[in-house]
Backbone:
C-alpha cells in the first residue's frame, strides 16, 4: 500500500463516552482525572500518551493502524497483528504482506508468536538484519485452541524454562531493538504464571511486560482482574508494566492506571468499531480527563466506516476484497444504532464502496450516539477448558522440546 498522506478525519474524533457495559470496572462510577503519568519508555522509544494498540489477528493490519493513528495524531504505539516466527523465517507470502508498515508508522512495532527458541531467534535476527521493525513484542497471551494445543500463546509461560529460552534467544538476537512481552495471568486459577513470567522477563532483558487480567480459561468472558495488574506492578519494579482488559473508553484507561499503578495501558477489543478511541485517550491524558463533549452521530460513524473499507482495499490491492474484509467490522461500528436487520445484512454483504455508500444513504444518519453503545465488543465467550499438549501440566519446568513444526506456517487471522 502506498503511504497515506491524507489528513486525519478530525470531524469524527470525539472524547470518550462514559462506559455503560456491565463488564467494565468503571461502569457507573464518576469520571476520573488522568493520573500524573510519565511517558512510557520502550527501549529507545518514548510513547506518549502511554497507550498501546493490542495486536489482534485479522484486525490490527496496516489499514486499521493507519486509521487509529490518524485519530491520535500519530501518538501512542500501534502493534501489528500476530506474526508466526516460522512463517516469517520461511518468507510465507501472506506473512510478508502482513509485516508491511505504512511509511508514516514510527516506531514500527511487530508482534511475534513462536514456540521454538531457535526459530524465534532466527525470526528476530531476520527483523534486525533486514530492518523490518523497530520494536518486537512476543505473544504469550493468545488463548485460542489452535495456539494453546501446540504449547503456544497463554499456555507457554507455564513451562518456565522454555519461556526463559525463548526470551533469551529473542533478546540475544535483537541487538538494539527492544523486546517486550504480552501475557495472561496463567492457564487457569490453579495454574497462575504471571508473577514468575514477569520475573523471568526482567532477568532475560525484556524491556516491558503487558498483562491481560484474565486467564486462558476465561478466554474473553467475565471481568478482567485489575488487582493482578497491580500485583505484577509491585512484583516487577525494574521495567514498565502495562495493563490490559476491559478498557472500553478513555475513562477506563485512566481508572486502570490509577487503580493499579501500571505504567501504560494496552487497548484491544475496546477500539473495535471505535478507532477514534485513540483520539479520546490523547485528550484524556493531555487535557486532564475525558470530559463529556458530544459523541459522534451516525453520519460521522459511517464516514469512518467508509474510510476503513477504502484503506483495506488500497492495502489488499482490490476494492472488492477490501470491502469483503471490512464486513466483520460492521457489527462493531453499528452497535447501539437503529439499523434494521435487513440494512445490517446489506452492509455486511456489500462488495464495493458504491454498495456501502448506497446502504449508508438509506439510513438515518442523524441518529445521535446511543446511550448503551459502549461496553463489551468482539469476542466475549465465557471460560472453557484450555486445550493443551498431552501432559503439559505435569511439570512446570520440564517438557519435550517443541520444534518449528509446532507452529503454523502462516500468520494472521
Residues:
Amino acid at each position: 500500500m502506498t503511504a497515506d498522506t491524507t489528513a486525519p478525519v478530525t470531524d469524527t474524533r470525539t472524547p470518550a463516552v462514559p462506559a455503560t457495559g456491565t463488564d467494565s470496572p468503571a461502569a457507573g462510577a464518576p469520571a476520573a482525572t488522568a493520573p500524573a503519568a510519565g511517558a512510557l519508555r520502550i527501549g529507545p522509544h518514548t510513547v506518549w500518551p502511554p497507550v498501546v494498540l493490542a495486536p489482534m489477528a485479522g484486525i490490527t493490519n496496516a489499514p486499521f493502524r493507519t486509521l487509529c493513528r490518524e485519530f491520535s495524531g500519530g501518538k501512542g504505539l500501534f502493534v501489528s497483528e500476530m506474526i508466526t516466527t516460522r512463517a516469517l523465517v520461511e518468507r510465507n507470502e501472506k506473512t510478508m504482506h502482513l509485516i508491511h508498515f505504512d511509511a508514516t508508522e514510527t516506531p514500527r512495532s511487530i508482534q511475534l508468536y513462536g514456540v521454538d527458541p531457535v526459530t524465534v531467534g532466527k525470526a528476530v535476527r531476520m527483523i534486525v538484519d533486514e530492518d523490518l521493525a523497530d520494536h518486537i513484542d512476543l505473544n504469550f497471551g493468545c488463548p485460542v485452541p489452535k495456539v494453546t494445543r501446540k504449547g503456544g500463546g497463554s499456555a507457554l509461560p507455564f513451562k518456565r524454562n522454555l519461556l526463559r529460552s525463548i526470551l533469551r534467544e529473542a533478546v540475544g538476537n535483537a541487538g538494539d531493538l527492544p523486546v517486550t512481552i504480552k501475557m495472561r495471568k496463567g492457564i487457569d486459577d490453579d495454574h497462575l504464571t504471571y508473577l514468575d513470567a514477569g520475573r523471568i522477563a526482567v532477568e532475560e532483558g525484556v524491556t516491558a511486560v503487558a498483562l491481560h487480567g484474565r486467564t486462558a480459561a476465561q478466554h474473553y468472558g467475565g471481568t478482567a482482574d485489575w488487582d493482578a495488574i497491580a500485583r505484577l506492578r509491585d512484583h516487577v519494579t525494574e521495567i514498565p508494566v502495562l495493563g490490559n482488559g476491559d478498557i472500553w473508553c478513555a475513562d477506563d484507561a485512566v481508572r486502570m492506571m490509577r487503580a493499579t499503578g501500571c505504567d501504560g495501558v494496552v487497548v484491544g477489543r475496546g477500539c473495535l468499531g471505535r478507532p477514534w478511541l485513540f483520539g479520546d485517550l490523547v485528550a484524556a491524558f493531555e487535557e486532564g480527563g475525558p470530559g463529556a463533549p458530544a459523541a459522534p452521530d451516525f453520519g460521522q460513524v459511517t464516514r469512518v466506516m467508509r474510510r476503513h473499507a477504502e484503506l483495506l482495499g488500497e492495502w489488499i490491492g482490490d476494492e472488492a476484497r477490501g470491502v469483503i474484509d471490512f464486513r466483520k467490522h460492521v457489527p462493531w461500528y453499528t452497535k447501539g444504532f437503529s439499523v434494521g436487520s435487513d440494512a445490517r445484512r446489506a452492509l455486511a454483504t456489500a462488495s464495493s464502496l458504491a454498495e456501502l455508500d448506497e446502504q449508508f444513504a438509506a439510513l438515518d444518519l442523524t441518529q445521535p450516539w446511543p446511550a448503551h453503545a459502549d461496553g463489551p465488543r468482539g469476542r466475549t465467550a465465557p471460560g472453557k477448558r484450555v486445550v493443551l499438549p498431552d501432559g503439559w501440566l505435569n511439570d512446570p519446568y520440564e517438557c519435550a522440546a517443541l520444534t518449528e513444526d509446532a507452529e503454523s506456517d502462516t500468520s494472521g487471522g
